């Protein structure tokens, strides 16, 4: 599995990465959501370079311009609820895309142990389509695995691009080991080396869903 770490280079992308991590900036949910959206927009631009293009003759007021345009827009998929702002950033750029939404959550089996429970997916048919599955945090990798396998119930994609804003080293290694299909690419904004016992990435940014939409009550049952 090829892994692209967009935070390794120097670009404006890193300004948005810094702001979503900064606890002084995080107190503004609107800013936090917008920064996730901006990161999604930049990721969409970078991923678009790997898609298929064809030449199109465009009639202008003064003549014909030949422009390479996307053959088809990818299907955009995300895991509720934290993925919504990031997904919207992708949708701002791939504005003709079909969309898929996956409902999954952490089900705690003990104080420090949990499993990812899949509940529901709303998706178009995916046979022979490019798909982008985004989730802000790639911690253990379990949510991304569940999301990917849920998508396969809707068809066999041509290529799947997995996109996460911040990943743990362990999470990256897990998806590389578990999702072995040759038609998968992983895109991240940064890779952190540590996780807490509760599987939160360190230094990470905290709980992306809570920061974007407010603190939730977790079900421990």
**Mean pLDDT metric:** 92
Strand order of the largest sheet: 1-11-9-7-4-5-6
SSE class: alpha/beta
Number of helices: 6
N-to-C order of helices and strands: EHHEEEHEEEEHEEHEEEEH
State Rg: 18 Å
Range of helix content: 25-40%
Strand segment tally: 14
Q: Can you identify the CATH class?
A: Alpha Beta
Shape: globular
Oligomer: single chain
Give the uncertain stretches in residue-range form. none
Write the CATH fold name: Rossmann fold
**How many domains?**
1
Q: Give the biggest sheet.
A: 7 strands, mixed
**First-to-last CA distance:** 35 Å
Report what the structure shows.
The protein has 221 residues and is an alpha/beta fold. It has a single domain (2-50, 71-213), classed as Rossmann fold. The chain has six helices and 14 strands. The strands form four sheets. A seven-stranded mixed β-sheet has the order 1-11-9-7-4-5-6, sandwiched between helices. The chain is globular and about 60 Å long. The model has no long low-confidence stretch (mean pLDDT 92).
């Amino acid at each position: 599995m090829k892994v692209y770490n967009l935070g390794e280079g120097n670009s404006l992308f890193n300004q948005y990465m810094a702001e979503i991590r900064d606890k002084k900036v995080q107190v503004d949910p609107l800013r936090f959501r917008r920064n996730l959206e901006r990161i999604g927009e930049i990721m969409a631009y970078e991923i678009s370079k790997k898609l298929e293009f064809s030449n199109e003759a465009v009639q202008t007021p003064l003549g014909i311009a030949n422009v390479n345009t996307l053959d088809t827009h990818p299907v955009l998929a995300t895991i509720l609820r934290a993925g919504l702002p990031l997904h919207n950033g992708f949708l701002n750029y791939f504005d003709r895309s079909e969309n898929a939404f996956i409902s999954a959550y952490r089900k705690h089996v003990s104080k420090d142990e949990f499993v990812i429970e899949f509940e529901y997916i709303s998706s178009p048919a995916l046979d022979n389509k490019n798909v982008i599955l985004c989730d802000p945090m790639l911690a253990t990798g379990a949510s991304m695995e569940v999301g990917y396998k849920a998508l396969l119930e809707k068809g066999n994609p041509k290529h799947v691009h997995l996109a996460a804003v911040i990943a743990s080293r362990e999470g990256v290694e897990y998806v590389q080991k578990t999702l072995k299909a040759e038609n998968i690419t992983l895109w991240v904004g940064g890779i952190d080396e540590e996780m807490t016992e509760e599987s939160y990435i360190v230094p990470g940014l905290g709980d992306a869903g809570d920061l974007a939409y407010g603190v939730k009550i977790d079900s421990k049952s």
